[in-house]
Amino acid sequence: MSKGKVNVALIQHKCVEDRSENMKVAVDMIRKAAEQGAQIICTQELFTGTYFPQTINVNKYEWAEPIPGPTTNTMQSLAKELGVVIIVSLYEYAMDGVYFNTVVVYDTDGANLGKYRKHHIPEGPQYIEKYYFTEGDGGYPVFKTKYGTIGVLICWDEWFPEPSRILALKGADIVFYPSAIGSEPDYADLDTSQTWMDAIKAHGIHNNMFIAAVNRVGREDSDEGYMEFYGRSFISNPWGTIIKEAETKENEIIITEIDLSEIKRARNILQFHRDRRPDSYQDLLKRIIIE
Asked: What's the sign of the alpha-carbon dihedral 156, 9, 254, 48?
């Protein structure tokens, strides 16, 4: 199958308490990205609000939205208007007491290509996500857009190699990672940003595909303290080389052209998928392996 070139954009920005202002910022940036030639545009994780899992607050369940709902309706119309693919992160209301951290993908004609619900839910100081999110129940889908087949994983998913391998085997050319990651409250001197980048681009190497990770920026205060999000949104190629990275810790559109034909070339040289031994990996289905 012949694969061509595509312009990918990531929307990195600060978030404030005013949710309508966050939406306005995102919409304006998406419009600018489209003007610059972007064809696939990805929002950051939970971009319409501040990162509420810093604390436990039952009232934050009210931030969850059904699909369709206000956020998805806005982005679906925008995708159709601009003729671009938009990857939309939101806090999904499924039913009373069941809420997901979800991404919906809209094609260039506004068609809803489906959704992905975050599987790996972290729990730690000021990353109190298990209180807010149910573990994803829909597998690891790929989305066949006008500009290529893509996969999406969400933040904590990016630290696990298995999901990206599944997406690659399903035909994903690019895996997007909407994220909200920054300081570690219990380890104030620890900067995980390079570890974060290395872990994610390694998935691109193991599967010879493109990776696009978008992270928020800025300080967000809470009753428990604050989080400082480090940005560093980036796009890497099938060799793990970063071809575009955020230049600032401010609002920024990270955009670049990628050549999907590079995937086949990389896979013809590094035959990771050919030489896999899934018949020998049964132990991976166990929580622990102690003889």
From this structure: negative
